[in-house]
# Entry
Amino acid sequence: MLVDTHCHLSFPDFDSDRKEIIKRMTAEGVRLLIDPGIDVPSSRKSVELAAEYEFIYANVGLHPHEASASVADEIFAELEILARSPKVVAIGEIGLDYHYPDHNKTAQQNAFRQMLRVARSLDLPVVIHCRDAWEDTLRILYEERHSSLRGMMHCFSGDTAIAKECIKIGFKLSIPGTLTYKRSLLPEVIRAVSLDDILTETDAPYLAPVPFRGKRNEPAYVRFVTTAIAEIREITLHNAAEHILKNSIELFRLASH
Ligand SMILES: [Zn+2]
Ligand SMILES: [Zn+2]
# Structure
């Protein structure tokens, strides 16, 4: 049983063939999918999709790209209300993204802190998007740290030292299809950490793994990610998948939903 812990299945990219995509993922053995939000409308769609399918769960979030200008207080209030919906298992995606030159660091950091506080007030894990911003992301997590802070680094892109730092403060590393790209650092990270700290995702429609690189990604392809992890760890696909499923159920407390 495979898990896609981060897939934008509710995005318009899948409007024309969502049912087919779900059929294909089920046929490939993907039996658990988490659909994250990036703002209020997309978070609402995640919640709606999760209500439709028993094996889909939702995250409510505010992506750093949507926080590049200052965000009104009402938005945070609206997100907090949405996050109380059934099957919302985390706050995400939230975080920092300094990749594009027009980013507004202050606005992103403020939104990130506000959303961490929403997660804290609802006792939910957080799903972090971090791109080219490890120093500030880890600093803010340390500053906002509390006893029940936990979550996942989605599309983990750091090195082994950063991986260990994240694990130390209560985070799991979610491994995307970039693991299959030639110059990926992820095989080294996967060798260096415990399998308890690893999750799998597609981030579809983005980041399709080899042999579909450059095409639209879909949840069925999480099989390529899980297979690559099993090969690196020299275990069977079945063992890797079961272990990752257990990690996902624990982190997102799925047994109680
Ligand atoms: Zn992201
Ligand atoms: Zn995403």
